[in-house]
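Entry type: protein chain
Record version: 2
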Amino acid sequence: MSINVCKTRSSPVGTAPVRLGIENLPALMAFERQANDDAWSEALLSAALVDDDFDVWGIWAVEGVELRAAAVLAYLPFDAELQSICVRPSDRRHGLARELLGWITQCAIERGVERLLLELRASNVAARRLYESAGFAVDGQRRGYYRRDDGGSEDAVLMSRELM
């Protein structure tokens, strides 16, 4: 069973992230199709929801039926990798990604993670600004890592933040 050291707390945007379980898979799949241009498959999300080395967090809409934001964090020896963080289009630019990133960072610290890793598309300037403002630094890049709809490719920017 995953070590769940994070406790519910008040949130500046009026919601608190909650750990999602396999029972949330239908809502998570609907969210992925709506919010993520590179949506995860049902098999990958299902595996992450039941794997002790992953935490999947979500922020629910007030009515508790639809997700507003979600993130997937994979725990590695000493490090954790933010594999996905996404906010549905109608809720962007309201601080949800920042709230979720802060929550994930605190959970990783409480779990003893030494460094938080992530990667993003080189063209995702808004995400890069968010990560830099949260203390992440660029470590390098992977050339041609992401596929584009036009058949081309795009570089991935690798970032990390020391937590201890």
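Comment: The chain has one domain: 18-162.
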